[in-house]
Design brief:
The structure is a single chain. This protein has 307 residues and is mainly beta. The protein contains no helices and 26 strands. The strands form seven sheets. It has a five-stranded antiparallel beta sheet with strand order 5-4-9-1-11, with no helix packed on it. The N and C termini lie far apart (44 Å).
Length: 307
């Protein structure tokens, strides 16, 4: 069973409103699962929980259809259709199709039957499985790993001091075509004080670009000021901070009147860490964040907007 777990990443963009459905049909007996993320502004490695998924255990077709009622398949292989409104037109959705039985990873057909709107489709060039930024004395080590790559040419390592404006600080050649794990490392020798945001711009041989998720490293001078991103947030808020001892950190969200409307306790270890804080159940509005550290210090991370 050495071939279990082989998967393929796709992205597509609806060009009109309508009910989006698709079918994944094995061309020979095999089991397939799928996960769907989005919408995004451009093709990227997904973050957070998928908006549709299936973990069926049969060799029949799977996908989205108009009769299913559940967003996450409960056993029959089908999840509910995706309604594309005007705000989602030309946005990007990312689809991962994974084979859970032995065999090649491309032994299926993916189709978008009517009434799905017209689409632009492609295969994501990389399967990113790890991306980290770690402060070390006066430098930051940026490391990442891919499980597979297709047609990749190089990586631009990009840094921002505000989480919005990025500039390229280095370039590394990519693996090109690889069906195995590839590890990369880059050292930023000139980080700024406080928060340093990093993401990768992967460039294909044909010039196509994919932007990865963002990670952050905290340099000396901001050890007690949590960094929150993205801002505004729609799903999960990332909270980065430094703890001086192991223990439990309590993250609190306050509304405009100062009332605590959401809390989360997270086990932390001494050093830098990033805690994921789901915001899906929070109403739209402006909020502030604070972190009660195991040392007893309460660090405030500023305000953010929930969309």
């Amino acid at each position: 069973m050495a071939a279990e777990g082989i998967g393929t990443w796709y992205y597509f963009s609806p060009s009109a409103t309508g009910d989006l459905i698709f079918t994944i049909s094995p061309t020979s007996p095999a089991n397939y699962d799928f996960s769907l993320w989005g919408p995004y502004i451009s093709a990227q490695c997904p973050t957070g929980n998928p908006i549709r998924c299936s973990t069926k255990n049969t060799t029949s077709s799977t996908g989205l259809n108009t009769s299913a009622l559940d967003q996450w398949d409960t056993g029959d292989g089908w999840a509910s259709k995706l309604v594309i409104a005007a705000a989602q037109v030309n946005k990007v959705y990312v689809l991962y199709v994974k084979k859970t039985s032995a065999g090649t990873g491309q032994d299926f057909t993916l189709s978008f039957p009517s009434p799905s709107p017209a689409l632009y489709c492609g295969i994501l060039p990389i399967e990113l499985i790890d991306l980290q930024a770690q402060a070390r004395e006066r430098v930051v080590d940026v490391t990442w790993a891919t499980a597979t790559e297709q047609n990749s040419d190089h990586y631009d390592i990009q840094r921002s001091f505000d989480g919005a404006d990025y500039s390229t600080i280095g370039t590394l050649p990519a693996a090109g075509d690889a069906q195995y794990r590839t590890d990369y490392a880059f050292t930023d020798n000139t980080p700024g004080p406080g928060a340093n945001y990093y993401h990768l711009k992967e460039v294909d041989r044909d010039g196509a670009i994919t932007i990865t998720r963002t990670v952050v490293a905290l340099m000396e001078g901001a050890t007690q000021v949590p960094v929150i991103f993205p801002n505004p947030v729609t799903g999960t808020l990332n909270v980065s901070f430094t703890a001086f001892r192991d223990g439990i950190a309590v993250l609190s969200v306050r509304d405009a009147l100062g009332r605590i409307v959401k809390e989360q306790s997270s086990a932390v270890q001494r050093g830098e860490q990033t805690v994921r804080f789901p915001m899906d159940d929070l109403q739209r509005g402006c909020y502030s964040l604070q972190v009660a550290l195991p040392s007893g210090i309460v660090a405030r991370g500023g305000t953010f907007v929930k969309q």
